[in-house]
Design the sequence.
C-alpha cells in the first residue's frame, strides 16, 4: 500500500551517509538520487524510504506526532538496528523493549530529529 515516504533534510550529504550505513544493515540500498532526493529500498517494487530538501526551499522541520516504523525480523534485529542508529549519531527515544504486550520496539531520532522505530511482533 505504501509506495514511499519522505523525510525532510537540511543536510542531504550527512543524512545520506547516516541512512546508507543504517539501511545497509537490512539489505537496502540507494535506488534513486537527484539534487534534492535520495531514496532507498530493499529491492525492485518495494516501498522506498527517501530524504528530500523541501520543495518550497524553507528549512526542513520535524513533524510533531510523525513517526516512521520500520519492520525487523525479530527482537535481536530490533536491538541491532536500534544500536546502529545510536552509533551513527541518532538519539534515544525509547530503548528496545516489549510494548503493549504485542510488539518489540526500539525508538530513535535521526540526525534531523525525525522520530523512527524498528519493530517486530512479540512472540514471547
Sequence:
Amino acid at each position: 500500500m505504501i509506495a514511499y515516504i519522505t523525510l525532510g533534510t537540511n543536510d542531504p550529504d550527512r543524512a545520506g551517509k547516516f541512512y546508507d550505513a543504517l539501511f545497509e544493515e537490512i539489505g537496502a540500498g540507494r535506488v534513486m538520487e537527484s539534487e534534492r532526493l535520495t531514496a532507498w529500498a530493499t529491492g525492485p517494487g518495494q516501498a522506498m524510504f527517501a530524504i528530500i530538501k523541501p520543495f518550497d526551499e524553507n528549512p526542513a522541520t520535524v513533524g510533531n506526532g510523525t513517526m516512521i516504523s520500520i519492520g525487523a525480523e525479530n527482537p535481536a534485529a530490533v536491538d541491532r538496528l536500534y544500536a546502529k542508529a545510536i552509533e551513527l549519531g541518532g538519539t534515544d527515544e525509547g530503548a528496545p523493549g516489549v510494548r503493549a504486550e504485542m510488539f518489540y520496539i526500539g525508538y530513535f531520532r535521526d540526525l534531523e530529529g525525525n522520530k523512527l522505530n524498528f519493530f517486530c511482533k512479540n512472540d514471547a
Observations:
- The longest strand covers residues 91-99.
